[in-house]
Write a structure and sequence with these properties.
By secondary structure, this protein is an alpha+beta fold. Helix content is 22%, strand content 47%. The protein has helices at residues 3-6, 9-27, 32-75, 90-93, 95-98, 104-114, 116-125, and strands at residues 133-156, 160-186, 189-207, 216-226, 229-238, 246-255, 266-271, 277-282, 293-304, 307-318, 321-323, 336-339, 343-353, 358-369, 373-376, 382-383, 389-401, 407-415, 423-432. The two termini are 36 Å apart.
C-alpha cells in the first residue's frame, strides 16, 4: 500500500496544513493560539489517516478471502474450466511490500497461521478434527514423596507414649514415555491409541528398625516395562458457534498390559521375635493397574480472542479381575479378586495465544477415587481402608509451534493434595499431517 495510501485527500490536507504553518511562520511572528490550533488539526488528520489505512487493510483482507472462496467454488464447476480471479485492488497490489497478503493463497495461509495456537490447544484438551493423522511422542517425569508415622503402643498418664514409633517414607520417581497415534476418520470422529513405557524407582525408608527409634532401614526397588495400553474415540457433538463452545464426547478403554501390583514377589527385611513381618518391599515395581477400565468424558473448548477457555469432566469404571495371590505376605498364597473404586475427574482452564506460534495455559484438574474392594476366593468383598484418593493438580503449560506440522508442548503440574504427585513435568511433540 504505497501510492494509493499516500495520495489520499487526508494526506494532501495534512501536507497543506504543514505548508501553511511554515508560510505563516516566515511571514510574521506566529501567534501562539494559532500554532496550537494548527497542531490540533494536524493531530486530528493524523488519527483519521491512521484509521483510513487500517480500514484499507481490512478491506484488502476481505477481498482476498472472497476471492479464495470464489476460486474454490468455481474450481469444482462442471466443464473443468476455472474463471480468472477477480482483479486485485490497488492496496492488494502493493501489499507484498507492506507485509500483507498479495494473493488469495497468502491470505489463506495468514488465516491458518492465526488459528494455529487455537488448534494446538484443542489438540491437547480435546481433539483436532481437521488433521488426518497425528503421531505424538511424550516424556513425563513424576515425583512422589509421602511420609507416615506409625504408633504401636499406648498412652500412659495422658502424656507419655509407651511402645514403638515407626516413621515410614516412600519416595518414588516415574519416567513415562508415551507413543500416541491419532487418526481422523471423519470431520467429527477421531480414534486414538496410547502405548506407554514406564521406568520406576521407589525408595522405602522405615524408622524404628529393630525396635529402636534411631535406627532406619532403607531399600530401593525398580521396575521397567510397558504400561496399560489405551484405545479411545473422540466424537464432536457440536462445533463452536456463537456463544456455544466446541463440545467433544470421549469414550475409551484401557487394557491391563502392564505389570500388575498383585502377586509380586516380596523381600522381607525385618521380622519380629514372633516371626511377624515388620518391613517388606516388592522385588520390582508394577507398571500398570492390573484391571480393565472404561472411561467416558465430555470436553468443551471456546475461543474468546486472545483467550481460549476449556473444561472437561468424566468417569472411569474399573472391572473386577482375579489374581493368583493378593496377599503381600511372601509366606502365604491367597488367590482372590480386586475391584478398584470408580473415579470421577474434572478440570478447567484458560489459554492465552500470544501470537500465531505461542500460547500459555493455566488449569486445574482433580481426580476423586472411591475405595477399592478385595475378596479372597469364595469370600466376601471388603473395602480397603485408605485406598480412596483426592488428587488435585495445578497445571502450567506452554505450547510453541516449531513448524507447520510440529508442535512442542511443555507442562508443569504442581500437586495440591497429598494423594497427587509432588510435581510432574511433561514434554510432548505431536506431528500432525
Amino acid at each position: 500500500m504505497h501510492t494509493s495510501i499516500r495520495a489520499t485527500p487526508l494526506a494532501l490536507a495534512a501536507l497543506a496544513l504543514i505548508a501553511a504553518a511554515g508560510a505563516q511562520a516566515q511571514a510574521a511572528p506566529a501567534n501562539e493560539a494559532d500554532v496550537k490550533a494548527l497542531i490540533a488539526q494536524l493531530e486530528t488528520l493524523k488519527a483519521n489517516y491512521a484509521q483510513e489505512v487500517r480500514r484499507l487493510r481490512e478491506l484488502d483482507m476481505q477481498v482476498q478471502a472472497m476471492q479464495a472462496r470464489l476460486s474454490g467454488r468455481t474450481a469444482a464447476a462442471p466443464g473443468g474450466t476455472t474463471p480468472p480471479p477477480l482483479p486485485a485492488t490497488a492496496p492488494a497490489a502493493a501489499a507484498g511490500n507492506d507485509g500483507y497478503a498479495s494473493s488469495a493463497e497468502e491470505a489463506q495461509q495468514a488465516r491458518q497461521a492465526s488459528r494455529r495456537s487455537v488448534d494446538d490447544v484443542k489438540q491437547q484438551q480435546a481433539a483436532l478434527f481437521s488433521r488426518r493423522f497425528t503421531v505424538e511422542n511424550s516424556l513425563t517425569y513424576a515425583r512422589y514423596d509421602r511420609k507416615q508415622v506409625t504408633l504401636n503402643g499406648f498412652l500412659a498418664l495422658d502424656a507419655i507414649f509407651l511402645g514403638n514409633i515407626a516413621i515410614e517414607n516412600v519416595e518414588s520417581d516415574t519416567l513415562t514415555y508415551n507413543l500416541a497415534a491419532r487418526w481422523g476418520v471423519s470431520p467429527r470422529l477421531t480414534l486414538n491409541l496410547d502405548v506407554p513405557y514406564l521406568a520406576r524407582k521407589t525408595v522405602f525408608q522405615k524408622g524404628g528398625a529393630g525396635g529402636s527409634a534411631a535406627a532406619i532401614a532403607q531399600e530401593e526397588t525398580t521396575g521397567t516395562g510397558i504400561g496399560d495400553v489405551g484405545l479411545s474415540a473422540n466424537y464432536r457433538l457440536f462445533a463452536e458457534h456463537g456463544r456455544w463452545p466446541e463440545t467433544v464426547l470421549t469414550v475409551g478403554a484401557t487394557a491391563p498390559t502392564g505389570r500388575a501390583p498383585y502377586g509380586l514377589d516380596w523381600t522381607v527385611l525385618e521380622r519380629d521375635d514372633d516371626d511377624y513381618i515388620r518391613f517388606a518391599v516388592p522385588e520390582q515395581q508394577p507398571t500398570g493397574n492390573g484391571v480393565w477400565q472404561a472411561n467416558v468424558g465430555l470436553s468443551a473448548v471456546k475461543t474468546a480472542d486472545p483467550a481460549i477457555l476449556f473444561a472437561n469432566i468424566g468417569y472411569i469404571h474399573s472391572f473386577p479381575r482375579g489374581f493368583d495371590d493378593l496377599d503381600a505376605n511372601p509366606d502365604t498364597v491367597n488367590p482372590g479378586e480386586v475391584k478398584l473404586g470408580g473415579s470421577y475427574y474434572f478440570g478447567a482452564g484458560v489459554a492465552f495465544a500470544f501470537n500465531e506460534r505461542t500460547s500459555l495455559s493455566i488449569s486445574f484438574s482433580d481426580k476423586l477415587s472411591s475405595r477399592a474392594s478385595t475378596r479372597y476366593r469364595n469370600g466376601q468383598w471388603f473395602k480397603v481402608i485408605g485406598s480412596d484418593a483426592n488428587a488435585g493438580t495445578l497445571n502450567l503449560g506452554i505450547t510453541y509451534a516449531l513448524n507447520r506440522n510440529t508442535t512442542l508442548v511443555s507442562m508443569l503440574g504442581i500437586g495440591l493434595t497429598p494423594d497427587a504427585p509432588d510435581f510432574t513435568l511433561a514434554f510432548k511433540v505431536p506431528y500432525m499431517l
